[in-house]
């Protein structure tokens, strides 16, 4: 969950010199993308959903975390602030990033005040009562919820957990960007599709083993699966904030067509439409869109867009059936049918 309080004053202050970036308020325009994209990225999902990628996680029933907020955290501020004196305070992961005016936060109670006319983008980690705290800070705050097809989110979560468990590589943590030429997946063996854990360690359990119990039932207690039951978290936010203060960002479309989703975000935040297709190019090596400006190209770092393990199609189908009812509840809560697959 990302929060932002924005007023048109903030956008008018930073008017883009390029009028060509101004866009209509398209909400779901689809941009044709290279067919090589899905094949180069993931083989874990059905062909129609190979790029469903947004995650939404939580560490307690009262909190909610959007795993893909990093995309907005990076794309939006960077595109908005390229070469400009853009007032931007960027909070993420409790780390100090002086070059981007990050601030260190030890607790969410230290969330900065968001004043009228200011735009700040916050990354919501998971602590209790986050919705209430944010409301206490600023009741008119605007919220961005980035969601992804739940099964793919769970596989992504699994992939990340495995990667953390098996990889001792820390180089990617030093920078949130990687050069577009070094976009590889360090966590999976390209030949076997299996994990390359530390030597001597037992092979980690597969997603299938963790997701499905020996009796064949879905292990809904498995955390990556539990965290994909979005309605259980969503209702907490909607008890605290009116629906119109929340934008559901389609994380799948954010991958396929970042510009259209970012345009929606700009509209929702009351920002002038400044982000355009010229800001992006499709990087075939990485299998994702990357940023482009006059002087350089930037992809998100290696840990963003990892190759997912192959998952048994029967397990995928079983999980998708499991989420049908939960997805329906989520659609009803947010008043939007995201059309996630049912098998
Ligand atoms: N342009 C672009 N480049 C790379 N990655 C992209 C992009 N757009 C969206 N994504 C998806 O973002 C997912 C990783 O972001 P997360 O928020 O899950 O990362 S994290 O929670 O901070 O670790 C990541 O999930 P995985 O594919 O499972 O790695 C990506 O699918």
Automatic annotation (TrEMBL):
Region described as Disordered: spans on this chain: 1-57, 166-209
Q: Does the record bear Glycoprotein in its keywords?
A: yes
Q: Which residues form the Sulfotransferase domain?
A: 126-328
| Record keywords | Disulfide bond, Glycoprotein, Transferase
Record's InterPro entries? Answer: NST/OST, P-loop_NTPase, Sulfotransferase_dom
The entry marks the following residues as binding 3'-phosphoadenylyl sulfate, namely 148, 156, 289, 304-308
Q: Coiled-coil intervals in this record?
A: none
Q: Where is the composition biased (Low complexity)?
A: 166-193
Bridged cysteine pairs (disulfide): 290-299
Q: Which GO terms describe its molecular function?
A: [heparan sulfate]-glucosamine 3-sulfotransferase activity
Q: Which Pfam families match?
A: Sulfotransfer_1
The family database entries (Gene3D superfamilies) matched by this protein are listed as: P-loop containing nucleotide triphosphate hydrolases
What is the name attached to this protein's record?
Sulfotransferase domain-containing protein
């Amino acid at each position: 969950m990302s929060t932002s309080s924005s007023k048109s004053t903030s956008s008018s202050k930073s008017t883009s010199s390029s009028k060509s970036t101004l866009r209509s308020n398209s909400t779901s325009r689809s941009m044709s993308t290279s067919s090589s994209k899905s094949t180069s990225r993931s083989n874990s999902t059905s062909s129609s959903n190979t790029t469903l990628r947004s995650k939404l996680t939580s560490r307690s029933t009262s909190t909610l975390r959007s795993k893909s907020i990093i995309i907005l955290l990076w794309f939006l501020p960077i595109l908005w602030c390229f070469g400009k004196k853009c007032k931007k305070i960027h909070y993420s992961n409790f780390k100090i990033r002086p070059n981007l005016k990050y601030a260190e936060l030890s607790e969410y109670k230290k969330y900065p005040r968001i004043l009228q006319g200011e735009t700040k983008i916050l990354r919501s980690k998971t602590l209790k009562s986050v919705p209430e705290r944010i409301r206490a800070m600023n009741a008119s705050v605007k919220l961005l919820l980035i969601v992804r097809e739940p099964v793919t989110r769970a596989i992504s979560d699994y992939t990340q957990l495995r990667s953390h468990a098996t990889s001792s590589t820390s180089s990617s943590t030093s920078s949130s960007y990687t050069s577009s030429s070094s976009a590889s997946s360090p966590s999976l063996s390209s030949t076997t599709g299996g994990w390359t854990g530390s030597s001597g360690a037992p092979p980690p359990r597969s997603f299938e083993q963790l997701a499905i119990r020996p009796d064949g039932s879905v292990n809904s207690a498995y955390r990556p699966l539990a965290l994909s039951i979005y309605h259980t978290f969503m209702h907490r936010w909607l008890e605290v904030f009116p629906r119109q203060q929340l934008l559901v960002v389609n994380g799948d479309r954010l991958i396929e067509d970042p510009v259209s989703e970012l345009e929606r975000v700009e509209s929702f935040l009351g920002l002038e439409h400044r982000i355009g297709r010229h800001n992006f190019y499709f990087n075939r090596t990485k299998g994702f869109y990357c940023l482009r400006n006059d002087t350089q190209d930037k992809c998100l770092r290696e840990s963003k867009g990892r190759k997912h393990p192959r998952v048994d199609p029967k397990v995928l189908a079983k999980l998708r059936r499991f989420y049908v009812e939960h997805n329906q509840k989520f659609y009803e809560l947010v008043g939007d049918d995201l059309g996630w697959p049912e098998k």
